[in-house]
Amino acid sequence: MLSKELIKTIQRFHFRTRYLADEMFAEQYTSAFKGQGMEFAEVREYIPGDDIRSIDWNVSARFGRPFVKMFHEERELTVILVIDLSASNLFASKQRFKRDLLAEVAGTLAFLAIKTNDKVGAILFTSMVEKFIPPQKGSAYVWRLIKEIFTHEESAKGTNIASALTYLNRTIKRNSIVFLLSDFMDAGYEKVLRITSSKHDLTMIRVEDDAEKNLPDMGLASFTDPESGEICQVNTSSRRVRRLWQEERQKKEQDIKSICSRCGVSLIELNTNQSVIKPLMRYFMEKGRR
After folding, report:
1. What share of the chain in percent tops pLDDT 70?
2. How confident is the model at residue 264 (pLDDT cuts 50, 70, 90)?
3. Does residue 219 come out as left (phi exceeding 0), alpha (psi in the -120 to 50 range) or beta?
4. Which domains does the chain have, with CATH numbers?
5. Residues 95-140: pLDDT tens digits?
6. pLDDT > 90: what percent of the chain?
7. 91-96 contacts: CB < 8 A, separation 24 or more?
8. How far apart are the C-alpha atoms of 46 and 211, rounded to whole Å?
9. Which distant-in-sequence residues (6+ apart) come within 8 Å of 208 by Cβ?
């Protein structure tokens, strides 16, 4: 039985993501992701200026005047959201948890998919695949998806991106649009990422919090790894320690960008303290131009 507070939270995310999909990104999404091809619709009489290559010679011969073939885009696509629910996403310094940001982006993408009559499915993972939600249509499905993100009780706390992508490649045979949503606190997934990008239209969405970039001066502090449970003492007053922390974070960011570049994968970077509108809008516009 869900608490009233949790139901309100899910409803709030449901309405917000539908608003974003309706008002902000629908046109950009359609232009960014084209259909799988063109299919025949009908024939009509030739109009001066029509491409003569589209003339249907059989119909034209039957009626004694030129007719041209009309086609429309085969629009239905399949969108798969691969969502990281590991313990490291239960982190927030100010406004919202990283998991809240994942839920908002996932809901927005799901609404965009169903708005254009595409199917949308999801794979929830930690250090293992937690749940597979087969691709479906309909707004009620988005409610279920957001609800699963907030209420699913994970069997593990760690992160294994490679296993999630391996499961995706084995389960989803048809070429699909895939969004991998994570903070990417993991390593060793480049090989399977390259395989996935060769089979699907893959985009990585990385979420982070400002507090993860710079270590504040708090004196001697205890830090707990949310995934392993390991605890360590850190002297945050040390300038050297803070500098090494920052350098390590910058190296991690650069490594992720390099992996994306080598694998031919698009990367969207989102922050818990910022709106998702500009990064997503920029991504859709750039992809539409390509």
Report:
1. 84
2. very high
3. left
4. 4-33+76-289 (3.40.50.410), 37-74 (no CATH)
5. 678 888 888 888 888 888 888 888 899 999 999 999 999 998 887 7
6. 31
7. 91/209, 91/211, 91/212, 91/226, 92/209, 92/272, 93/209, 93/210, 93/211, 93/272, 93/273, 94/209, 94/210, 94/211, 94/272, 94/273, 95/272, 95/273, 96/272
8. 64
9. 98, 183, 269, 270, 271, 272
Phi, psi of 63 (to 5 degrees): -100, -10
Least confident stretch, 162-166, 204-208, 281-285, 286-290 = 286-290
Distance CA 135, CA 117 (A): 12
Phi, psi of 267 (to 5 degrees): -130, 130
Residue at token pair 């990008």? 197
The pair phi, psi for residue 165, each rounded to 5°, is -70, -35
State the average pLDDT over residues 260-287: 88
CA 174 from chain centre, in angstroms, equals 18
| Among 165, 200, 177, CA closest to 119 | 177
Strand bridging mode 220-224 / 119-125: unpaired
